[in-house]
Amino acid sequence: MAAVDSDLESVELAAREHWLEGPPHPLFRRMRSECPVHWTEGFEDFPDEAGFWSVTTAEDIHAVSRDWETYSSEHGITAAGVLPLELVRSMFIGMDPPKHDRLKALFQAGFTPRRIAEHEPAIRSIARRVLDRLDGRRRCELVSEVAQPIVARVIGSFMGIPERDDAIWARLMNSTLGAGDPDVNPDGVDGALERDVPEVFARCRELIAERRQRPAASISDDDASPRGEDLLSVLVHAEVDGERLEEQEIVMGFFLLMAAGNDSTKATFCSTMRALMEDREQMQMLVENPALVPSAVEEALRMFPAFAHFRRTATRDTELHGQSIKAGEKVVLWYASSNRDETHYDDPDRFDVTRDPDHQAFGAGGRHFCLGTALARLELKVMIEETLARYPRMQLDEQAGRPEYVESPFISQLKLLPVRLAA
Predict the structure, then answer these.
(1) 10 Å Cβ neighbour count for 357?
(2) 312 class by beta-carbon count within 10 Å (0-12 exposed, 13-18 middle, 19+ buried)
(3) Which of 49, 104, 110 is nearest to 73 (CA)?
(4) Spatial distance between the Cα atoms of 56 and 52, rounded to a whole number of angstroms
(5) Pairing relation of β-strands 330-334 and 52-55?
């Protein structure tokens, strides 16, 4: 391995200072070049947490992702173990095969590309209704007034949640996943664990009880799945090897889908719109040729993955890129870095709607490749198409304020994006 400058060797990658403006891409660039498997000693906000190895290149993340026997998901899925481990292990994202494979199969039937494609008219209708609320206005805040209500209704419709509860679930997911940002959750991680997570569980248990009592009842929202066909009903009545899921497994499956559905597309969409507004030539290409939107979606996923990292834990002593890793040590996969790996992409920091790249926004293959890839791609396609069709001259509203990121080394997303609409 190349020699590492002392300042890079001592970097605390998860420190708040590195994430105030989103992922620290210059720092990742140095790490890929000088120390592609990098050790961080500890955490500023979690002094009792053990340190971790950072994996920053596309090739190394690809290798780790496909070797679940050496790099396990059962010991935590983020650099800092915020949620109790027993809860994480109730989600298939926190499991290893064979249990992971059996449980994930229950979800996959609802997320096949064909089934997702059938939802395009409903998703487009949701996007148009949200954009209709902006009629007659000159400016808006794109995160809270456009992206959030669209993604909340889309995942709510899949889960069978009535639209009147969308804002409640969005608040709970935002305050839990963004607990480290005082603007998102003033009570911090402790507040999320003591107040928000218990509320998520209590509300979910109420929904579970309703489906057990009235499995075939309908709900009032036109764009929500009928009771019995929604994904929560599937979980409630599903069996794995002849046994029903435990209530905690249902609750955590619900939590996983709601968290991913709330954050992923919202994050990538808003960063994409910012990139387009900062490069009018790229925006005009999409306005004049909407057939480029699918390739723009892939470029958006590459440059702006919604989750900056996920984690594995070494099950045995091993070696990666010349670095010795001991059994029990955390191994963090930084997709925010690997998606800009210079060995895979020309000019990787440039947003190019014609690039249509491969990427690791949904993971790097293996057992934990993202379940919601088809839904995320469809949502992004629809949201970009509908927004540009309605507001082809949208621009950043500097008078209203500058874009601001959630302070988090996990969720990579904007919390404020003021824009002028210019219909």
Answers:
(1) 16
(2) buried
(3) 104
(4) 13
(5) parallel
Could you tell me the two tokens for 32? 């890929």
Per the listing, tokens 């579970």 go with 208
Residue 137's identity, in one-letter code, is R
Residue 279 CB partners (closer than 8 Å, separation 6+):
351
- β-partners of residue 416 are 404
DSSP string, 250-261: HHHHHHHHHHHH
Provide the Cα torsion 297, 302, 307, 308; round to 10°. Answer: -160
Distance CA 38, CA 7 (A): 12
C-alpha distance from residue 309 to each of 80, 268, 338 (Å): 11, 15, 10
- Calpha distance 409→6 (Å, rounded): 22
Three-state secondary structure call for residue 177: helix
Closest CA to 156 of 251, 221, 88: 221
Q: Side chain identity at 125, as an amino acid letter?
A: S
**Quick one: pLDDT at residue 213?**
87
DSSP class of 91 = S
Report yes or no: 144 and 402 within 8 Å, Cβ to Cβ. no
pLDDT tens, the chain, 423 aa long:
334 445 888 899 988 899 999 999 999 999 999 999 999 998 877 888 899 999 999 999 999 999 999 999 999 999 987 778 888 888 889 999 988 888 888 878 778 888 899 999 999 999 999 999 999 999 999 999 999 999 999 999 999 999 999 999 999 999 999 998 999 999 988 899 999 999 999 999 999 999 988 766 544 455 555 555 788 888 888 777 777 888 888 898 899 999 999 989 999 999 999 999 999 999 999 999 999 999 999 999 999 999 999 999 999 999 999 999 999 999 999 999 999 999 999 999 999 999 999 999 999 888 888 989 999 999 999 999 999 999 999 999 999 999 999 999 999 999 999 999 976
The secondary structure element, H or E, covering residue 176 is helix 166-177
Q: Give the domains, in start order, of the chain with CATH numbers.
A: 6-420 (1.10.630.10)
Q: How many CA atoms lie within 13 A of 111 on its CB side?
A: 19
Cα separations in angstroms, 323 against 28, 52, 381: 17, 13, 40
* C-alpha–C-alpha distance, residues 193 and 308, integer Å: 22
Rounded to a whole number of angstroms, the CA Rg of the chain reads 21
Distance CA 273, CA 366 (A): 30
Q: Considering only CA atoms, which of 9, 322, 274 is closest in space to residue 143?
A: 274
